[in-house]
Design brief:
- The chain is mainly α.
- The chain contains one helix and no strands.
- The protein has one helix at 2-114.
- The longest helix is centred in the middle third of the chain and has 113 residues, at 2-114.
């Protein structure tokens, strides 16, 4: 009889442990399903980020190409600006010389006119 009581007590303990383990297993299954769903979401996000990364890399390459073209244009325009500035300086010098020559010529003409040898206005 003591053996039977021991068996019944052990059976009750085993049943209690089994129910406890079943609860743990159910919780682990639920956690597994949740983590599987989270992994799926993260996988989709990773795929999306990968596509966006490729798009941005293409955009960066395009911008780098445009930057090179613009830098080349800036160099060309800077060179042309130097040429135009040089030509402008030459023209200003020439204009100044012409102005001086004109003043000198008018002065000579006025002197000739004052002496009676030139035209009068």
């Amino acid at each position: 009889m003591v053996d039977v009581v021991d068996l019944v007590c052990r059976a009750d303990m085993n049943e209690t442990h089994l129910k406890s383990f079943q609860g743990v297993v159910a919780n682990k299954k639920e956690e597994f399903c949740d983590s599987k769903a989270e992994r799926q979401v993260l996988s989709e996000q990773n795929s999306f980020v990968g596509c966006e990364k490729a798009i941005f890399e293409d955009h960066v390459a395009t911008l780098e190409g445009q930057t090179e073209v613009l830098e080349s244009q800036v160099r060309a325009l800077t060179w042309e600006k130097g040429i135009v500035a040089s030509e402008l300086a030459k023209c200003q010098c020439q204009l100044a010389r012409t102005h001086v020559n004109g003043v000198v010529a008018r002065g000579c003409f006025a002197m000739d006119a004052g002496e009676g040898g030139g035209l009068r206005n």
